[in-house]
Amino acid sequence: MQILIDQQSFTPNRVFCIGKNYGEHVKELGGKTPEEPVVFMKPVSSIVAPGESLFMPRHGNLLHHEVEVVLSISREGQDIPQANALSFIAGVSLGLDLTLRDVQVRLKKSGLPWELSKSFEQSAPLGLFKAYNPDSIDLENLSFTCSVNGKLRQQGKTRDMIFPIKNLIHTLSGWWTLRPGDIIFTGTPAGVGPLKAGDRVDIESPDIGLFSWTLFTFGEIGYFYRRVF
């Protein structure tokens, strides 16, 4: 799999995801504000390019959209100081952390890991990356939205993060050595909600671009042709 940053390709290495990084989102799910970043991971195979058909997962009933600012890492770093953190960013995009909320609630109640609810096939729709330039992309105040069938569902700004991007890179690089091709989903604002077959999802930032996907069921002919031919 190859990912583009302004028409230059790179191979994704790992997909880090941050949970509970916006206060209003924590409130809407009834959780507690974390004292450190909540980290989970998705397989690289869960990435879905813009415009590619999405298919409803079959092992849950309540699929939620979660729009997020997404970063790609340019070079290796460990224990990266916050003051230098942004220099490790190669590109910026938007993505969807698709979540099976009913499955997640069940797993949480049982004290089990989240993979079935967060890391399933096609759980990481990802837009095209724009090369990071601090003169044109303000990562401390980047606005972004998610609309479903033309209706606004989520609206966020990175300035509202509990753990800002500099902090995320610093913290992650203390737990893992960050490497070129690593991807970081940085958390979602309030307004997450359900998706169903036939829905069109648009995620957009005036500084990054617009990316769209349409949801189908596994029984539809499009799935057969995508898998077999």
- Walk across the major sheet and give the strand order: 4-3-15-8-9-12
Q: What is the beta-strand fraction? A: 25-35%
Distance between the termini: 18 Å
Number of strands: 18
- Named CATH topology: Fumarylacetoacetate hydrolase, domain 2
Strand-helix topology:
Layout: E1 3-5, E2 8-10, E3 15-19, H1 23-28, E4 38-42, E5 47-48, E6 54-55, E7 63-65, E8 67-73, E9 89-96, E10 99-100, H2 101-109, H3 115-118, E11 124-125, E12 130-131, E13 143-148, E14 151-157, H4 165-175, E15 183-185, E16 193-195, E17 200-205, E18 209-216, H5 221-228
Parallel strand pairs: 3-15, 5-11, 6-18
Antiparallel strand pairs: 1-2, 3-4, 7-10, 7-16, 8-9, 8-15, 9-12, 13-14, 13-17, 17-18
Can I get a quick summary?
The protein is 17% helix and 34% strand. The protein is an alpha+beta fold.
Textual characterization of the structure:
The chain is α+β, with helices and mostly antiparallel strands and 229 residues long. It has a single domain, classed as Fumarylacetoacetate hydrolase, domain 2 (Alpha-Beta Complex), CATH 3.90.850. The chain has helices at residues 23-28, 101-109, 115-118, 165-175, 221-228, and strands spanning 3-5, 8-10, 15-19, 38-42, 47-48, 54-55, 63-65, 67-73, 89-96, 99-100, 124-125, 130-131, 143-148, 151-157, 183-185, 193-195, 200-205, 209-216. The strands form five sheets. The protein has a six-stranded mixed beta sheet, with no helix packed on it. The longest helix has 11 residues, at 165-175.
